[in-house]
Write a structure and sequence with these properties.
CATH topology: Rossmann fold
Low-confidence stretches: none
CATH superfamily: SGNH hydrolase
Strand order of the largest sheet: 5-4-2-1-7-8-9
CATH class: Alpha Beta
Order of helices and strands: EHEEEEEHEHEHEH
Structural class: alpha/beta
Mean pLDDT: 94
Largest sheet: 7 strands, mixed
Distance between the termini: 23 Å
Shape: globular
Strand content: 15-25%
Number of helices: 5
Number of strands: 9
Radius of gyration: 16 Å
CATH architecture: 3-Layer(aba) Sandwich
């Protein structure tokens, strides 16, 4: 029986491609949060940096939406619309926002980390959340596996995680690299996990959310 440790929380999750497909975190993490008593709505923008949530825009590789235990509704058209954060806040009325983003902005295929650009993307979102006076949690990227079309490496994943941990304030940071060893959770393309990996990642994130729950209860 669920402990209902998150009872009374209305959660808005904003995610990247890790939240954009049934069976990914939009399923595993969301289901775990619901079991703890939270009401959860997830919006995912595949392939986009976090700045996409500032103004209504388009996600080139698609979007996903899931409300509570309902189906994951995806749009894989080239004109998949992304609502603005202000619109989502007005619609969902969250008292906790969870941001799941890191790999999309990691610049894994670039020689140098895009420091200025990532900082702008992150701060544009955290400042908007702070202005709305809503508690927030930011989930950093996991290890994945090295290689594949996204050029992810353990060193770059670690750097991105460390960078985010120092720049997402006032959001509290969840370090996914502490949840498993490098390569422990298998992927099919270096970045996106198999079903087993997404289940383990969702469970581990849920455990961290629970450990932070006291500070975000309404």
């Amino acid at each position: 029986m669920a402990s209902l440790a998150l009872a009374g929380l209305t959660i808005l999750m904003l995610g990247d491609s890790h939240f954009a497909t049934p069976g990914y975190l939009v399923t595993t993490l969301q289901d775990e949060l619901i079991r703890q008593g939270a009401h959860v709505t997830t919006y995912a923008a595949c392939g986009e940096p976090t700045g996409v949530w500032i103004e209504a825009g388009v996600a080139a590789c698609g979007t996903a939406v899931r409300v509570q235990s309902g189906p994951v509704k995806t749009d894989h058209s080239k004109n998949a619309r992304v609502p603005s954060l202000d619109t989502l806040i007005a619609t969902v009325h969250p008292n906790l926002i969870i941001v799941g983003a890191g790999d999309t902005m990691g610049g894994y295929g670039q020689k140098q980390f895009p420091t200025e650009w990532v900082t702008q993307q992150v701060q544009s979102l955290t400042r908007r959340i702070q202005a709305a006076n809503i508690s927030c949690v930011w989930i950093g990227p996991g290890w994945g596996t090295e290689g594949g079309p996204f050029f992810k490496t353990y060193a770059k994943a670690e750097y991105m995680s460390q960078f985010l941990s120092a720049h997402v304030s006032p959001c509290r940071f969840i370090d996914s690299t502490k949840m498993a060893k490098p390569g422990e959770w298998p992927t099919f393309d270096g970045q996106h996990y198999t079903a087993v990996g997404y289940q383990k990642w969702g469970d581990a994130i849920d455990a961290d959310i629970l450990s932070l729950a006291r500070g975000v209860q309404p």
